[in-house]
UniProtKB/TrEMBL annotation:
Span of domain Ribosomal RNA adenine methylase transferase N-terminal: 22-179
Alphabetical GO biological process terms: methylation
Gene it is expressed from: erm
Protein family: Belongs to the class I-like SAM-binding methyltransferase superfamily. rRNA adenine N(6)-methyltransferase family.
UniProt name for this protein: 23S ribosomal RNA methyltransferase Erm
GO molecular function, one term: methyltransferase activity
Taxonomic placement: Bacteria, Bacillati, Actinomycetota, Actinomycetes, Micrococcales
Alphabetically ordered keywords of this record: Methyltransferase, RNA-binding, S-adenosyl-L-methionine, Transferase
Superkingdom: Bacteria
Organism: Georgenia faecalis
Pfam family name, one: RrnaAD
InterPro entries xrefs: KsgA/Erm, rRNA_Ade_methylase_Trfase_N, SAM-dependent_MTases_sf
Coiled coil: none
Residues that, per the record, bind S-adenosyl-L-methionine: N15, L17, G41, D62, D84, N98
PROSITE patterns hit by this protein: SAM_RNA_A_N6_MT (PS51689)
Length: 254
């Protein structure tokens, strides 16, 4: 197979999925949503063929020009673009794809801050999918974006179902844009700073951490926790989207 000017499949972080049930599962999840589809990291086109079978407009992008040429010949009715997901407009209703593992974090960050898409179905590393969905405790990124997005864990994908075989399993992560955000969009930047300050705050009781993060006195911090009905013994990773939104609203009122 010719080598891309951007490197081989290893440098591009490509692990092609060849497990038919998983491919069908992703297509089925996408099929539950309406509108045009954007596939990121199309690679050899295994998922592209399944998405094209849904009978909806599909745009597939990949950084490997050779994969792009082959897909254009194989699927002339699909729009195939030679493009970088970190720069390409995310303007389709649904975003799907087998995400290059080494680019998972920047791709997720861009998805959660750009575009008007409504649903994403992504194949990522298992630990990333699990953490983003809040299994075993929520991460800072999840907490920062939860007022605007819902995350679901849709399944585990064994490493042996990829070629070449990666060192870790994959996971199916579903992301849905909330119809009614829990925090106003105009407050997003300030809210994200607050969440970061809470997650990175020095140890101690949650009230003390909130006090420093919100720059209020101890009485107001405790009142904010009580107003949001949050156990002061909780840890930041224990709070769900509703907890964070309520705490933020209480802090703002204070």
């Amino acid at each position: 197979m010719p080598r891309s000017v951007h490197g081989g499949r290893h440098e591009l972080g490509q692990n092609s999925l060849h497990h038919r049930p998983t491919i069908d599962r992703i297509a089925a999840l996408v099929g539950r949503t309406p509108g045009p589809i954007l596939e990121i990291g199309a690679g050899d086109g295994a998922l592209t063929h399944a998405l094209a079978g849904l009978g909806r407009p599909v745009t597939a992008i990949d950084l490997d020009e050779h994969c792009v040429h082959r897909l254009r010949r194989a699927l002339p009715h699909v729009r195939v673009e030679h493009a970088d997901v970190l720069r390409y407009p995310l303007d389709a209703s649904v975003v799907a794809g087998n995400v290059p593992f080494h680019l998972t974090t920047p791709i997720l960050r861009r998805l959660l801050t750009h575009g008007e898409w409504h649903r994403a179905v992504l194949l990522t590393q298992w630990e990333v999918a699990r953490k983003r969905a809040g299994v075993g405790g929520r991460t800072m990124m999840t907490a920062q974006t939860a007022p605007w997005f819902e995350f679901t864990l849709e399944g585990r994908v064994a490493a042996r179902w990829f070629t070449p075989v990666p060192s870790v399993d994959g996971g199916l992560l579903g992301i849905t844009r909330r119809g009614s955000p829990l925090v106003p969009a105009a407050e997003r930047e300030a809210y994200e700073r607050f969440v970061r300050a809470v997650f990175t705050g020095a140890g101690g009781r949650l009230g003390r951490i909130v006090q420093r993060a919100a720059r209020v006195d101890g009485r107001r911090a405790e009142a904010a926790l009580a107003g949001a009905r949050i156990d002061p013994r909780a840890l930041p990773r224990d709070l769900d989207a509703a907890d964070w939104a309520a705490l933020w609203a209480a802090v703002r009122r204070g």
